[in-house]
Structures are given as C-alpha cells and as structure tokens.
Amino acid sequence: MSEQVTETICRSYANCGKLEIVVIRPTHIVFPPEYPELQARGRDLANYHLWSHAAPEHVARGFEPALALPEVRFVSFFISAAAGLNARPTLELARERYGFMPEIRRPEPYQRLPTAAVLDGSRAREFLGFEPSRTWRQMPAATVTEA
C-alpha cells in the first residue's frame, strides 16, 4: 500500500509538470544464499512474493534503459522474470491459495505460459527491452560455474 501511495504522490507531481518520474518495481530479488530454497518457495501456497522473482543483475539491467526513456511524465515498471518460482500453473496455485479464482484481467500470459509470474514484467520487456537472461532453475548452476 505504501508503494501505491508514494506512486500516487509522484504521479501528482509529474502531472503538474514538475518532475519526470520513472518507477522501477523489482519483484523479490533472489540472491545466491536463497537458491537452495527456491523450489520449496515455488510450492509454498503462502509465498508472500506470489512466486514472482528477479535476479539482481536483471534489476540492475532495468535501470539504464529506464533512465534513458525520452519525454517521460510518469511510468512504472515491474522487473520480474516471465515465469514464477512455481512448477505448477500459477492460476491453479492462486485458486488454492485464495479458495476462489481472483479476477484475471489479462489471461493471455497464463495461456502462453501457465507458470507466468503474477507481477507482470511485460511492460519492462516492451518499453525497456528488458529480458531476463536466466530462469530460477538456472540460478544454482550459475553460482557453481561462476564461483
């Protein structure tokens, strides 16, 4: 809620022509010490990040093109991997978590990718050219080879 209030205040300044505002909203940033927990987090119905995630380098790569956007008044972007940490379909987990199916405003991502992230990073992909370089399943392997 605090993020929404802050963004509303920022949008009001931008609408007055006082500021240009670009909001980067990274989902849960996964660091190497968390890698052993990722599979369990993907199965956890109570996962407080709603199974969304991003690697630190993905978040960092989102900043430069965001700062280079021309003539911005106000815009916000989720930086998120396209797929969640979950192996089961996201909508199936959501139904189990809430006991009903929440309103799905954009069903297309879940039709294309059943494990699509709840927090939608498609705007960052569309406007910033942001594309995660690896999935959560590749993160532990990357640590072993980078070490």
Description:
This protein is mainly α and 147 residues long. The protein has one domain. Helices cover 41% and strands 8% of the residues. The protein contains 7 helices and 2 strands. It has helices at residues 2-15, 38-43, 56-67, 90-98, 108-112, 122-128, 139-146, and strands at residues 21-26, 74-79. Strands 1-2 form a two-stranded parallel ribbon. The longest helix is centred in the N-terminal third of the chain and has 14 residues, at 2-15. The chain starts with a helix and ends with a helix. The model has no long low-confidence stretch (mean pLDDT 87).
Write the layout of secondary structure elements.
Elements lengths: L1 H14 L5 E6 L11 H6 L12 H12 L6 E6 L10 H9 L9 H5 L9 H7 L10 H8 L1
Parallel strand pairs: 1-2
Helix/strand-derived category reads mainly alpha
Kindly report how far apart the N and C termini lie.
39 Å
Q: Roughly what fraction of the amino acids lie in strands?
A: 5-15%
Lateral strand order in the biggest sheet: 1-2
Listing every helix as H and every strand as E from the N terminus to the C terminus, the arrangement reads HEHHEHHHH
- Give the tally of β-strands: 2
Give the helix tally. 7
Please state the CA-atom Rg, rounded to the nearest Å.
Answer: 17 Å
Largest β-sheet summary = 2 strands, parallel
Features:
2 strands; two-stranded parallel ribbon; mainly alpha; 147 residues
Quick overview of this protein structure:
With 147 residues, the chain is mostly helical.
